[in-house]
Amino acid sequence: SFSCPVDRTFASFQPLFFHSIPEGNECIKANAKSCGECIQVGAKCGWCMDPGFLKQGEATSTRCDELESLRKRGCSSTKVENPQGSQRALKNKAVTNRNKGEGKLRPEDITQVQPQKLTLSLRSGEPQSFNLKFKRAEDYPIDLYYLMDLSYSMKDDLENVKNLGTHLMLEMSKITTDFKIGFGSFVEKTVMPYISTTPSKLLNPCTGDQNCTSPFSYKNVLKLTSNGQEFNTLVGQQQISGNLDSPEGGFDAIMQVAVCGEHIGWRNVTRLLVFSTDAGFHFAGDGKLGGIVLPNDGKCHLENNMYTVSHYYDYPSIAHLVQKLSDNNIQTIFAVTEELTGFQLTYMMGILSANSSNVINLIIDAYNSLSSEVILENSKLPVGVTIMYQSRCKNGVTGEGEMGRKCSNISIGDEVSFTISITAKQCPKMGKPETIKIKPLGFNEEVEITLNFICECDCHKDGIENSDICHNGNGTYECGACRCNEGRIGRQCECSTNEVTSEDLDKSCRKDNGTDICSNNGDCVCGTCECKKRENPEERYSGMFCECDNFNCDRSNNKLCGGHGHCECRVCICDANWTGSACDCSLDTTTCLASNKQICNGRGTCECGTCRCTDPKFQGPSCEICPTCPGVCAEHKECVQCRAFGTGEKKDTCERDCSYFNLIKVKDRDKLPQPGQAFPLMHCKERDANDCWFYYTYAVNKTEKEVHVMETLDCPEGPDIIPIVAGVVAGIVLIGLALLLIWKLLMIIHDRREFAKFEKEKMNAKWDTGENPIYKSAVTTVVNPKYEGK
């Protein structure tokens, strides 16, 4: 895209300061002394005008409170001053629905922004929102001013621009039938350091045999015209000039084009400025090189279409230029040669060819890019006023914050809308109306908004000055209270700050001649205690000596007075049918009625809405349950069986008949509640149809019946195969051992018979005996010769 490089919202920039809001009631913290002060605190605050609203010890400022709190404190809605903001459209002409070729309209008859004029009444903290429509009209008039650098390096570019008029008129006719074009040129300030080192160069600053015109700062060559041929003729007469340094004085020229509307011929239509150069630029501060120290004044100084005070005023700053271009609804297209792409940090640009032959395409592309986006900007806001934007663009695209200011990709004929919220945080010092303007950047149309501030209540105008109610005319009686004159104090302005010593004042603020002033819960004002305020608007000190409060009473269930009464001077005042120090004892006996319409079944008394059973065996809401009485287990057996195991006679009607108790399953019998652990209970053991036992307890916990049941059944055991197998195996083993012993016995008998037979045959056998002739004994006997047998 091709657009002015600096942030477009610069001119409308307004700093926003965010303050952390303390917790608690801001209405009470404000300590407002009058209705006007109260309503400026915030939109939640109201002022009670009822003269009898204040209790003893309460300060006038306690009339200012949140609306709901005032209602609870007994202030009728008709007595609450709570002014509301409002808005009114003074001019609300619909956007123009017009197609190209339907007939020419004057620019002032075309509407692209709706509404055009509003008045808002703002109350502090209360936003006022309105919708703004924007529609880019078909065939909308366009003014284009071509501002060109005529230093010597732009010589070939000038040749191509000489025929720009007719060609550009032809191309722009495709966009609009009402197009005007103008031309201006610039070189540099006519101060010696910028143009030459010798005065002789002033007539012809170019070198060699080049014929150049004298240097100049800015020249308005052609006022905006619809005659393209006139553009070609006058531009064709222009000559190149020169200067000493590379940066040019283009910013001086842009400033004059922006502020000299009558000389340029700007209309209230789309205004385009094409700035064409191949060099950088001088800006504020560079004038010191030529001895120029006065800052640019941002005013028109054209005489005979020439800028005449370039030697007197410095170059403008970028911020100054942006402001003036925005103020005059001028959209700038920077067209520079490729050699200047290094300046992209300064501004975004369209790249010209070396000889500007592509300038027409560049302008058309830049215009299409600029016209496809709408950005809202606002004038400077009054102190304490903030503004928020929310956009609703094409194809359902929305934006908030800074993105809520703009819509992109808009075609001619598209309609977009913005919701704009304006909020005042305070009243201006003088309380006078302020005017702000909101407009689309680069368009002459705008919304003018008059801001009226609600700084006083309606009852203020009915105030009675020097009223007798305010102690013989020492104040103005307004909105149910006295606004004391200067030097007077007290709820009714009955004291003068100079009449009574502080000791005398304090004495009347001590209870029973004690040492604490206002019981340390207030301040002594004019001999009367004004009690302190609490963070919680529901909590208050009261009494002649601020000795009472409404928040230090007994509590029940963490509620003040049990939620059944209110606290007055640290004592609970109970509602009807409630009693007790904390209003926690109900006098209603309907909760103690049994099914037989007797209170507690005749077995107890009703105390605080609960039966107190006189017979220790009974319990329950109406003393109807006897957990330890015979027959309790049998009474609940079928329901416990169907709910815990899905069996029994009531399994089909279990949900209907057996939902009167809470069932809790446990894994083991030792997990069942034991006597003494909870409320009186009955341990039960029942058998089902399969001879399985189930164990449970039955008890009444306050008003709820509870059954704890073991989740597994205890069934009788069947024949055990392991002992049988073991017995069989043992029998087999015994038989085996017996057989083995018999076999062993038989073998012993057999062996003995065989041995006896062998012995018998041996005895009967006859054998021949003799010695082996080769046998030699292995034993050798040696006799000791010394042995004498001793």
Report on this structure.
This protein has a six-stranded mixed sheet with strand order 4-6-22-21-16-19, with no helix packed on it. It has a six-stranded mixed sheet with strand order 10-9-8-11-14-15, sandwiched between helices. It contains 15 helices and 42 strands. The longest helix is centred in the last third of the chain and has 44 residues, at 721-764. With 790 residues, it is an alpha+beta fold. Residues 34-457 form the Integrin beta subunit VWA domain. Belongs to the integrin beta chain family. InterPro entries: EGF_extracell, EGF_integrin_1, EGF_integrin_2, Integrin_beta_N, Integrin_bsu, Integrin_bsu_cyt_dom, Integrin_bsu_tail, Integrin_bsu_tail_dom_sf. It holds the Pfam family Integrin_B_tail. Its main location: membrane.
Summarize the structure.
With 790 residues, this protein is an alpha+beta fold. It is 19% helix and 25% strand.
